[in-house]
Amino acid sequence: MKWLVLLLITLPAFGITFPEYLAAKKKNISHERHLPYLLTHGHKTETSVLLIHGIFSSPLYFKGMANAFYERGYNVVTIILPGHWEKDWYRMGKMDSSEWSKEADIGWELAKQYGDRVILAGHSLGSLLNLEQSMKRNREEIHSMVMLSPAVVLNWPTVLSARVGETIHIDGNTFVRKKPDGIQTPDFNPRAALLIKETEERVMKKPITVPYYMAYTWADPVLDVPALIRYFNQFQVKRKVRSFSLTSGVFHNNISQSPEDFLTFTTGEGNAHFHPMMDEALDFIESL
Predict the structure, then answer these.
(1) CA–CA gap between residue 167 and residue 163 (Å, rounded)
(2) Are 251 and 264 in contact, with CB atoms under 8 Å apart?
(3) Which of 198, 204, 252 is nearest to 232 (CA)?
(4) In this structure, which long-range contacts are made by residues 176-180, counting pairs with CB atoms below 8 Å and at least 24 apart in sequence?
């Protein structure tokens, strides 16, 4: 009995370790470049980071963010969301938004294995899912949030385009003139925006209680920025917000990427303001 008790208290709370999580993902991810990764200092830190990517993205696309946290002394856990870079290139069109939330649940439990408290960080969809995590977890276990262009309110042209695209069976690949290949180009399925909309409606029913750093850009082609601002202004929590102007060169897709690590599906450059932004974010959360 003594050994059974010892085994139970030493097992991970969710019943999975990061190496096991990675091994499972290797079986269905289309290319190793998109696999989740762990940055660890070799011991459990007081605070760890759960970093979640945005739509059509993967952990590959925000190595600059991961390194910024790691260099400040945090263990960093990344995950890859269902429907992203899987061997079934077209699974996004077959899934339910609850699958994303369940994957974020796994991410939370993994992050808890590497830190007593967790910083919830992410871009776009990743920020939305971490916002949902903040509403599900014990407040004492959450340190803070870092949200870059959180997909809290998609604008009406994005939602309308997605509804039309799904109805007449036209995806975004038609417009970028690139077919999905599982390596560099995903299936830009219009259903993705509708799944985000479902997640938004679920998340926005509850108040925000966790201090946060948020950055957004007025040159955002997919978010309703005025509505996003109104939403966050409802809640009286400690926060620091940075906005980028229309002429800043910062857009929805590059706000989370450093110039050195920039990757995109088409053309462009990374966020030239990335490093000052991340320094500001880290200084703020470490002042709490």
Answers:
(1) 6
(2) no
(3) 204
(4) 176/265, 176/266, 178/265, 180/89, 180/90
pLDDT tens for the chain, 288 residues: list them: 333 333 333 334 457 999 999 999 999 999 999 999 999 999 999 999 999 999 999 999 999 999 999 999 999 999 999 999 999 999 999 999 999 999 999 999 999 999 999 999 999 999 999 999 999 999 999 999 999 999 999 999 999 999 999 999 998 889 888 899 999 999 999 999 999 999 999 999 999 999 999 999 999 999 999 999 999 999 999 999 999 999 999 999 999 999 888 776 555 788 999 999 999 999 999 999
CA-to-CA distance for 242 and 190, rounded, in angstroms?
30
- Token pair, residue 220, equals 């955002």
Q: So where are the chain's domains? A: 12-286
Please give the CATH architecture assigned to the domain spanning 12-286: 3-Layer(aba) Sandwich (3.40)
